[in-house]
Every structure is written in C-alpha cells, then in structure tokens.
Amino acid sequence: MDKFFPTDQNDRDALFQRLEAIEAVIARHEALFAKEGHSINDSPETTDGAIHFSGQFENASGSISYSWSRPPHHLLEEAWDSSFTRLAALAHPQRGLILKQLLNDPCSVSTLCQLGVTSSTGTAYHHLNELESAGWVRKGRGGVYEVPTERIIPLLTIISASENH
C-alpha cells in the first residue's frame, strides 16, 4: 500500500483535496437518490447530463477505487490539446506492453528488458520518458516505474472505451 501513498506533503494535500471533492459529489448524488420518487435525471444539476467513469482495481501493490464526473458542457468548452497530448503518448504498441506490465507489477527498466517487454534499455527509457511526460507513469524508489494510482482507472477507462461497442 505504501506505493500508492505519496510521500511528499504537497502531493498528499492534493490527493486529500481530490478525495474530498469526490466524496462531496458522491454525497450529493446519494442525497438525490434518497429522496423518495426522485430521479437523478430530474436534478437541476444534471439536466444537461453528466459523463462519469469509475472503477476498482487490484494488483500486487494493493487495491484502489476511483470515480470521476464532468458535465458535458465542461468537456466541450475546455481545450482538448492537453488531453490529446496524453492520448498520443498511449498510441504506441510498445507503450501498451509497458503499461500492462506496470499495472500488474511496477518494475525497473532492467526488469522490463529481462521480461522481454522491451528489447533494450534505450528503447525502454525512450517510451518511459514519453509516458512519464504525459503523466501515465512515474519513477519511484530504486528506479521502479509505476502507473500513478490516480491514472490507473482513467487509463483502463480509455482502453475499455476504445473497445468495439
């Protein structure tokens, strides 16, 4: 579980702020459902709809639960450039293999090579640098790379949304 808890005080504060915001959204939605005969679709807050994703994930490092929600107008009004940059970093088969490995078990560059995930340390560093600059991976203690906790469910959501529906 230590791998998922930030050691830097600023990172912890940011994590707790995000958690409080998520809990506030959940409490608001629970209150709406608690009203007898009231539907979430009748709420003034959601008359224009909402885009939600959430999930639970468990690997060798522990278990996480994550939820995110945005009104459509927010998504349509915001610039998509930073989102496309993060998506572009995922658009390489080698990076997909690296991310799969790191989701199952965070590891070092040498381990990625030993497992045959990458053919060389140079290749591994190239792809890890791209993924790291886009926020999909981070380097931890002892040179071990991992997918940050807050990026796991969004990553898997992107993959599942990309399936043939």
From TrEMBL:
CDD domains: HTH_ARSR. SUPFAM superfamilies: Winged helix' DNA-binding domain (SSF46785). InterPro entries: ArsR-like_HTH, WH-like_DNA-bd_sf, WH_DNA-bd_sf. This is Uncharacterized protein. It comes from Corynebacterium glutamicum (strain ATCC 13032 / DSM 20300 / JCM 1318 / BCRC 11384 / CCUG 27702 / LMG 3730 / NBRC 12168 / NCIMB 10025 / NRRL B-2784 / 534). The lineage of its organism: Bacteria, Bacillati, Actinomycetota, Actinomycetes, Mycobacteriales.
